[in-house]
Specification:
CATH topology: Aminopeptidase
Radius of gyration: 17 Å
Organism: Sphingobium tyrosinilyticum
Strand content: 15-25%
Largest sheet: 7 strands, mixed
Protein name: N-formylglutamate amidohydrolase
Order of helices and strands: EEHEEEHEEHEHEH
Shape: globular
Helix content: 25-40%
Pfam families: FGase
């Protein structure tokens, strides 16, 4: 057991599901000094990701690792020296408790153990493939006029091998797909840059729209669509 991550072991398939922002948990000894209601908001957690990741691990017979704390505690999908590792503001909300927080302590407590475990899991695989699972909000409070109509986004940096396979398959499954939307993997891809691209491991990075995976029906729908496509990507690139 670790407070830095939750590991779901559902089988031996060489496929690792990684969900950096799957948790809204804030340890009892950390006071962010925010309204508790914000912990159900997208600034704290990728809504629907934990549930979809669990369903996919069960469906595919593989391992999933879920980040153990809210991104307001530490952002696990940031480089060690990146701005925003310890957010003091998020989508217009001030996070006062982080102003005097010890970044080094949180890195040692959460960030390092999480990434070290990912490395260990990948090292134990003969021919690994990674599925990175995130979700995005259909609207930002700080930019309410920006339209985000996509059902799912596919993100990548230099390695777009799996993305090229997945995008047409996701479209054929009836989803409106954003290629590098609503974010670009050229800018926000820290975990995949570190564990996949730096090691030549093929991966698929997806961002599901939160309102479509906010309930059990939506979560099952997305897992049923994504699972076979991830397998096709893996089998094509193994």
């Amino acid at each position: 057991m670790s407070e830095a991550f939750t590991q779901i072991n559902c089988g031996a398939l060489d496929l690792l599901i990684i969900a950096d922002h799957a948790s809204a948990h804030v340890p009892a000894d950390i006071d962010l000094a925010i309204d508790a209601a914000l912990l159900t908001n997208h600034i704290a957690v990728d809504i629907g990701v934990a549930e979809v990741s669990r369903l996919l691990a069960e469906q595919l017979g593989c391992t999933a690792i879920l980040g153990g704390v809210s991104r307001l505690v530490i952002d696990l999908n940031r480089e060690d020296d990146a701005p925003g590792l310890l957010p003091v503001m998020s989508d217009g909300h001030v996070i006062p408790g982080n102003r005097q927080a010890d970044l080094a302590e949180r890195m040692i407590r959460f960030h390092h153990p999480y990434h070290h475990q990912i490395g260990r899991l990948l090292d134990g695989m003969t021919s690994p493939f990674i599925l990175s699972v995130h979700s995005f909000t259909p609207s930002l409070a700080s930019d309410p006029h920006a339209e985000r109509p996509w059902d799912i986004g596919v993100l990548y940096n230099g390695d777009d091998r799996a993305a090229r396979i997945a995008i047409p398959l996701l479209s054929e499954a009836g989803l409106l797909v954003g290629d590098q939307l609503p974010y670009s993997g050229k800018l926000l891809n820290a975990t995949m840059n570190r564990h996949a691209e730096a090691n030549g491991i093929p991966y698929l990075g997806i961002e599901m729209r939160q309102d479509l995976v906010a309930d059990a029906d939506g979560q099952r729908r997305f897992a049923s669509i994504i699972g076979p496509i991830v397998l096709q990507c893996r089998n094509s690139l193994a």
